[in-house]
Input
Amino acid sequence: MIERYTRPQMGQIWSEENKYQTWLEVEIAACEAMAHYEMIPTDAMERIKSRAKFSVARIEEIEQETRHDVIAFLTNIAEHVGPDSRYIHMGMTSSDVLDTSMAIRLKQASEMILAGCDALMKAIKDQAYEHKNTVMIGRSHGIHAEPITFGLKLAVWYDEMSRNRRRLTSALNNIAVGMLSGAVGTYANIPPKVETMVCEKLGLISVKASTQVIQRDRYAEYFSTLAILAATIEKIAVEIRHLQRTEVLEVEEHFAKGQKGSSAMPHKRNPVGSENMSGLARLIRSNAMAAFENVALWHERDISHSSVERVIAPDSTILIDYMLHRLTRIMTNLMVYPDNMQKNLEKSRGLIFSQQLMLNLISQGVTREDAYRMVQKPAMDTWHSQKAFMDIVLQEKEILNYLTENKIREIFDINYHLKYVDTIFKKVFDD
Output
């Protein structure tokens, strides 16, 4: 089941209307800068600002003949501006508009994605503090290892999301750049000072050097950053899916009144939201690979990157925005079952204390190899019986030669594993 996407703001960023609007913003900013440096008449610039407008339908109509979207756009603008339109796009090439406009829209999208990260991190933090001391079994290879708390699991997710946010901020800084450097990046017909002023007006940074395009290593970094963020979302989703399995049932996605899990089996309550996240992460990763393929263009540029970016820019940003908000809802409404966590923890009948037992034997002078052997024997007996590990250990004379019964009972204290929970929380949430 895919929930209805109810955030039109992100989709609007990639609409044809907003695309041409940002193109127009670039062109107007260029005219303002050129007027400032007396390259075009100031009164012409004012008329351009007051008259310039466009029609998506008209641009599409013109493009049927020109087979060139930027020329179609400029032709439509000229229809409204009149003779002063000769000053629009002066000394510029199409990519000056396309790449600078793309930076504006990627910046707009990234600000929404950062807000989505903040919302998810808050949901994770709230649950982490709610379950800071909710004890559960930690697993390695899917097998019971040693105790943790559910709050600690969430703290790890929060810490990882913090890194994702920092990466996204850095990647945003590297794609929020503009250029107006002309046909092959030499500024032959438009001086660098115009580019600098235009970028300042648009809230972008002027590139230090470009060809006919802004270099696509920036895009590769950005889309790979989205892919890493998607991978973290998938990691959380996979964990929820595992913990919701019937045999485990330690957490569960909220199951709404009237919701149905299966057309055949009325009893089903499935982690469909988390499964959805796993699937969408694959798309964003594949889009990142496409961005890497766009880095190598012919000479000062070709157009092979353009068709790719028309797909991956809206798709990846819209998908990651959706994933962040859907996972936030899942986390906010997550159903947590501490009683089941306790029952599952007890299923190994005390085997989770084997390392403490071994370390205590070592502290009494036993070699590590002998201590491992002495503990593994009763541990394997526990695996193959229904007896408690501690009861079997208390019958092991070799172990009793080094540890008293009281000491052994002391070793089987779960609080031993939880003594640094506060320390970890302080490290994660106070930074």
Notes: The domain at 92-342 is CATH 1.20.200.10 (Fumarase C; Chain A, domain 2). The beta strands are 135-140, 143-149, 177-178, 205-206, 251-252, 335-336.
